[in-house]
Amino acid sequence: MRLFFICALACALSSRAWTADKLTEFSAYYDASTNGISGNAERHLIKLGEERYRLNISLNAKVAGVEIGDLEQASELLYVDSQIQPQNYSYQVSGLSSDVESVSFNWDSGVALSADEDESWIVAINDHTLDELSYQLALAIDVATAHQEYYDYETVDGDTLDQLRFLTLGEEIVDTPLGRLRCVKLARVREEGSNRATLIWLAKDWGHLLTKIEQTSSSGLRIKLDLVNAIVDAQQVTGISP
User: Residue 209: which of 179, 165, 242 has the closest Cα?
Assistant: First the structure.
């Protein structure tokens, strides 16, 4: 169960909705599925105050219509000078399995306090360090502006700093309940010899909104996340004409 939650959402990307000096609030809704387990996911970006935002994900998983677990993931962040600076991160799974994680950033001291249910660590951070959710927002912004082949990020993961890399594969049209969306396709770059794979599609015409994810685990389990509805900057997302 925890594998489903982690794989389905750890690589999920927040929609990018922004201008040079601010981010734009959004709400997006997804169907998730894997190996007989179905779920519904939501992603929201909410403005809390001047330069301060909250990005959150929630997922509810079911088997044969019976609820078996929930995931809640959130990042409070500042968006200053077109840069994301995470402040607090939380992750919680409940149901058939449970897990709790948190990260609190102290930028004046250059450290983050990272903790799970059993341990806590002080981790030295860099100016560009992000958390396991805010990097997703940074990636979507970079895809929209930098047009690079590779995108690299550093996140706090337990007692270490994790290095993430994504590769641009090109553009594709993706069919959704909202219509056909023009998307940028990316892949998570894994270590050599890894049999895990993650593909991601971001809608070009809607602020690089997360449209689709397909992930294959090391055991061959295939996980999918598909957009079913979304509102970006108070506008209903719609597809292009056939």
Answer: 179
Half-sphere exposure (Cβ direction) of 216: Cα atoms closer than 13 Å = 8
For CA atoms 108, 111, 112, 118, give the dihedral sign: negative
The DSSP element (H or E) to which 6 belongs, if any, is: helix 2-10
**What is the per-residue pLDDT across 48-99, written as a single tens digit (0 to 9) for each?**
998 999 999 988 876 656 666 788 999 999 999 889 999 999 999 887 677 8
The token duo for 103 is 């990260």
DSSP state string for 21-77:
S-B--EEEEEEEEETTEEEEEEEEEEEEETTEEEEEEEEEEEETTEEEEEEEEEEEE
Contact 144, 208 (CB under 8 A): yes
For the chain, what is the total number of helices (H) and then of strands (E)? 2, 15
Q: Which phi and psi angles does 6 have, rounded to 5°?
A: -65, -50
Coil, strand or helix at 107: coil
The bridge status of strand 150-157 relative to strand 52-63 is unpaired
Walk me through the domains of the chain, giving residue ranges and CATH numbers.
2-236 (2.50.20)
CB atoms within 10 A of CB 199: 16
